[in-house]
Amino acid sequence: MATLTHHSVLARFGYALSDPVRARVLLALRDAPSYPGDLAELAGVSKQRLSNHLTCLRGCGLVVAVPEGRRVRYELADRRLGDALTALLSVVAVSSSACCCSADENHVDGRACC
């Protein structure tokens, strides 16, 4: 069995956060466990699209599905992940907004975003 290296763990976390829907889901689950229908509504996507994102987040080891009778509740795989998201938001909030843009925008100095 292969062990994960630090860089592959961070890459997996970064991949999960790279999509706005997955980021919204993680932030919602940071606050409280939730159900797919509620998460789909919160993220503004169809239940099918959300299901694909939840599959990705489960595959990354970031969320778990908890059966509740006929329903399934999702929650963060580890509460420390919520703490990490909060810390990351604190760091990003103090960084320069001039460095941030979406994929279809340019930096304020005209350079293309990656």
Characterise the protein shown here.
The structure is a single chain. With about 110 residues, this protein is mainly alpha-helical. It is globular. Helix 2 packs across helix 5 and helix 3 crosses helix 4. Strands 1-2 form a two-stranded antiparallel sheet. The model has no long low-confidence stretch (mean pLDDT about 85). The termini are far apart. The protein has a single domain, classed as Winged helix-like DNA-binding domain superfamily/Winged helix DNA-binding domain (Arc Repressor Mutant, subunit A), CATH 1.10.10.10. The protein is about 55% helix and about 10% strand. The chain has 5 helices and 2 strands.
The value of Rg in angstroms is 16 Å
Count of domains = 1
- Structural class by secondary-structure content: mainly alpha
Identify the CATH architecture.
Orthogonal Bundle
Shape: globular
**Number of helices, counting only DSSP H or I runs of 4 residues or more:** 5
Under CATH, the topology is which?
Arc Repressor Mutant, subunit A
Strand order of the largest sheet: 1-2
Largest sheet: 2 strands, antiparallel
End-to-end CA span: 34 Å
What is the number of strand segments?
Answer: 2
Order of helices and strands: HHHHEEH
Q: What is the typical, i.e. mean, pLDDT? A: 85
- Give me the CATH superfamily: Winged helix-like DNA-binding domain superfamily/Winged helix DNA-binding domain
The low-pLDDT segments are none
In short:
One of its GO terms (molecular function) is lead ion binding. By secondary structure, this protein is mainly alpha-helical.
